[in-house]
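ok so for the tutorial part 2 we go from a plain amino acid sequence to predicted structure tokens. step 1 is just haveing the sequence, like this:
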Amino acid sequence: MLRSEPSRPARAFLPFFSAMKTLEGFQISSPGARFVLIASRFNGLVVEPLIRGAEDALRRHGVSEDDISLVRVPGSWEIPWACRRIADSGKADAIVALGAVVRGSTPHFDYVASEVAKGVAQVSMQTGVIVTFGVLTTDTMEQALDRAGGKAGNKGADAALAALEMVSLRGVLGA
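step 2 — the prediction. this is what the tokens look like for a chain of 175 residues:
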């Protein structure tokens, strides 16, 4: 049987970090910040709840309806292209990529999932625009539905909250 020890603050283990300055963003709206959701139509049964989750999370945290836009693309493969166009336009402070790639019986899943992730990351790194990743890559449709508002939460909402926090952090960092 394991004996539990009284809980101790984390600082007790790392006393040399006690004066460390921590910079982080917050999940509150930055006035006038513009968010663009880029969502695939393919696997709509999964993607629609991701969109609703993302929009709801932004609205609940103070983002005006006028500051949220939705761009639809045919499938997840097209998400990086749309992210790049929006990033280059200067019309977004943050982009939330939303889609679902579900494994099938061919290697198609591997190519699409990998390239979408790589493409979205490249847009963020090359343009400096915040892009968060709410593209589900799952083995089964059941796993995808669980992550789109089912028992595993809503990853669209999670990606939107990450975007909100990163916009705030950008302000904190003066970037």
